[in-house]
Amino acid sequence: MTIPGNDADSDTGLLAAVRAGDTAAYGTLYERHHTAARKFAFGLVHSPADVDDLVAETFAKVFATLRAGRGPLVAFRAYLHTTMRHLFYQRARRDRRLEFTDDLTRYDAGEPFTDPALDRLERSFAAAAFRQLPQRWRDVLWQTEVEGNTPAELAPRMGLTPNAVAVLAHRAREGLRSLYLQQHVTVAEHPECRWAGERLGGQVRGRLATRDEHRMRTHLAWCSECRGRLAEIREVDGLRHGPYRQRHHVETPG
């Protein structure tokens, strides 16, 4: 298939061609973005073999998505990187659940292990969520979760009663949790899916307004992709060692 006009050298034209069945167009996209994809992968994993596997899996997944008529219309590289990040995260969670052993020492508490790459990813999600909070919520979270101040200690400084400070801190924690979960949602192309995707964190935490809750249920009834996204972040929310399940360090934004 020949890509007409000036679109021949643009990602937009190539994406349209792939959807129309032109596999060679995807080869061009691969050549154009392969180097950048490898650099991005090295920020997630460090073994060259793991990088090659992650890059190959990412390009294959995006190709299948495009051939199914979904995926990006523009901004191919951003979509590629988002897909790679989510594949890495899914792999890390899957591998963490596997146990390769032939003995019964599983009941020995031993030393806890934290995957450094997964920990970096989680921290980046948490930091991005923290930066999106209103300043007042960030202040009360910092004072209670990091500095360890009690509502009674903060009340005079904030001009509130201790009870009001406690309520504000609770709302801030719930807001942070919703925004943190939201970082795990891949950006969708369909407008209604984008609307739903921006609210899946609130859906999981039960924080949607009644009208939005009804619209979300209606959307999820027919959209399997958004149901999949919802299931993914529900799993993240339920992870035993997920951020903010207990008190955690909150990094200064910036």
TrEMBL record:
User: What UniProt keywords are attached to this protein's entry?
Assistant: DNA-binding, Sigma factor, Transcription, Transcription regulation
Q: Does the keyword GTP-binding apply?
A: no
Q: Mind telling me which InterPro entries this protein's record contains? A: Anti_sigma_zinc_sf (IPR041916), RNA_pol_sigma-70-like (IPR039425), RNA_pol_sigma-70_dom (IPR014284), RNA_pol_sigma70_r2 (IPR007627), RNA_pol_sigma_r2 (IPR013325), RNA_pol_sigma_r3/r4-like (IPR013324), WH-like_DNA-bd_sf (IPR036388), Znf_put (IPR027383)
Name the record gives this protein: RNA polymerase subunit sigma
Q: SUPFAM superfamilies in the record, alphabetically?
A: Sigma2 domain of RNA polymerase sigma factors, Sigma3 and sigma4 domains of RNA polymerase sigma factors
Keyword flag Transcription regulation: yes
Q: Which family does it belong to?
A: Belongs to the sigma-70 factor family. ECF subfamily.
Q: What are the recorded Gene Ontology BP terms?
A: DNA-templated transcription initiation
Q: Which domain of life is it from?
A: Bacteria
Q: Which organism is it from?
A: Actinoplanes utahensis
Q: Name one Pfam family in it.
A: zf-HC2
Positions of the RNA polymerase sigma-70 region domain: 29-97
Q: Which GO terms describe its molecular function?
A: DNA binding; sigma factor activity
Stretches assigned to the Putative zinc-finger domain = 193-227
What NCBIfam families does UniProt report for this protein, alphabetically?
sigma70-ECF (TIGR02937)
